[in-house]
Amino acid sequence: MTDAQKENYVPAGSKRPPDEFYDLKMIVPLRTENVLEDGSIVKIVVEEGAGNVIDDTDTVYYKHETRFDNGQLVDLNETRKVGDKFVMNDNRYHDFLRSAFLTMKKGELAFLKIGESQHRGIYHKNNL
Q: Is-contact 17 76, C-beta < 8 A?
């Protein structure tokens, strides 16, 4: 186990924070879309947006949290309640987010399921 994994590891008998797990089966989608044809990005829309579709020159403000397929938070220290800024035409940002945002309207609420192929294997891996 790496030091980063040890930092976030909570032994099975310990008390876990109430929001560490989220039952992903509780999501009631309006629709589910494959953002890319290969299915490596899936958008699960739970609330429709209003207005125009996001353009490649826009700036998007969004909130996120990263979870494993079982609903467990990847990083308990992640600032999930704080909004992040994403500049659509800035190459420093992740392509998988740009691809998903280009399919959304302002105010749309959606969960994104990002496949490992989009992460290039360098992000969170559950090796516990």
A: yes
- Token pair 């958008």: residue: 43
Extract the tokens encoding 121: 């294997």
Please give the CATH architecture assigned to the domain spanning 3-119: Roll (3.10)
Cβ-contact 96, 118 below 8 angstroms: yes
Spatial distance between the Cα atoms of 107 and 91, rounded to a whole number of angstroms: 24
Length of the chain: 128
Per residue in 24-57, pLDDT tens? Answer: 778 888 999 999 989 889 999 999 998 888 988 8
Question: Taking the complete model, does pTM exceed 0.85, yes or no?
Answer: no
